[in-house]
Amino acid sequence: MENPNKLSILKEMPEEIQRAQERFDELYFSTIHSISPTITKAVELLHQQTSKQIRPLLLTLVAGCYREVTEEVINGAVFIELLHVATLAHDDVIDESGYRRGVPSLNAIFDNHKAVLIGDYLLANAMVQAVMTNNQAIVLQLAKLGKHLSEGEILQMDTAELGDYSEERYLEIIDRKTASLIESSMMIGAILAGQEEPDLLRNIQTAGQLIGRAFQIRDDIFDYQPTKSLGKPSGQDIAEHKVTLPLIYALDQKSKDRDKVLKLLRHEELKRRDIQFIIDYTIRMGGINYATQRMEEMVTQAKALLIETLPDNENRDALLAIADYIVNRKL
């Protein structure tokens, strides 16, 4: 059965990229194969949760702009996806989340101890795949990503504890979490395609950061919008005291309800009616409109950089289509 999370735009990708994705799927699942029944079940679950695989797709598209997609490029794509899903396993434990994309999380199916170990198993496999690229610069990217992802998670906790609700701090957090993975995916694609010119790599890095920011803002907006499964906004971020861009903007506006929202955010546990009050406040104060505008601005800037930097070919066109997809996606 086709996974509902599978990236629908993949069918519109160049034939070479579709073949690369097929090879990616083969290598990805063979890499994480295990004799452990727990890991086998976890792999099946992760396939349901995370199969958009946008990061490896961005990586292969950037590489494909310059040369044929090689086995080293596929190894790089597997590395970046394994690192991504390892962080999801650990994040769900930290956040005590019961679901991801409507599917029970690893810690809900097993327990926190096993979920952490599964994340460690995936991380170890990511390290192996990074080495298999035969490129020291990719191993360095792995080390930098580990540093940024950990720092971002701790910074997010610090922000919730200190009540530092600013757009600047929000961007610092998502740059280290979501954006760093997308930024590195595109950088790794360029490096594995033999690109070394500093200005070119800098432009690709900046475009990746902008796309990564936009991707996270799109996810954050979802938290304030009705879902098919719930018929109402999930408010999961608010329940976990994560103040994202829509609410940050709303809190910057003058309103008689601002102090009440700040007071609610200091509660250890929020009731459903409190979460709904914060959602309604955010929408009423223009938070969704502002976040949408910022997201669209970022993608426009990223696309301009990609057009300026990358060769004019079908893979570049596909990259631009992915950037548009990020803004318009429904999941």
3D structure, described in words:
β1 and β2 form a beta hairpin. The two termini are 18 Å apart. The protein has helices spanning 15-31, 37-50, 54-64, 71-95, 106-109, 112-132, 136-162, 167-176, 178-192, 198-222, 236-239, 245-251, 258-265, 272-284, 287-309, 314-328; strands at residues 99-100, 103-104. The protein has a two-stranded antiparallel sheet. It has 331 residues and is mostly helical. α3 (54-64) runs parallel beside α9, α9 runs antiparallel to α10 (198-222) and α15 (287-309) packs antiparallel against α16. The longest helix is centred in the middle third of the chain and has 27 residues, at 136-162. The protein is globular.
Write the layout of secondary structure elements.
Blueprint: H1 15-31, H2 37-50, H3 54-64, H4 71-95, E1 99-100, E2 103-104, H5 106-109, H6 112-132, H7 136-162, H8 167-176, H9 178-192, H10 198-222, H11 236-239, H12 245-251, H13 258-265, H14 272-284, H15 287-309, H16 314-328
Antiparallel strand pairs: 1-2
Strand order of the largest sheet: 1-2
Task: Give the biggest beta sheet.
Answer: 2 strands, antiparallel
- How are helices and strands ordered from N to C? HHHHEEHHHHHHHHHHHH
Task: Give the CA-CA distance, first to last residue.
Answer: 18 Å
Uncertain residue segments: 1-5
DSSP summary, beta strand count: 2
Structural class call reads mainly alpha
The gyration radius over C-alpha positions equals 20 Å
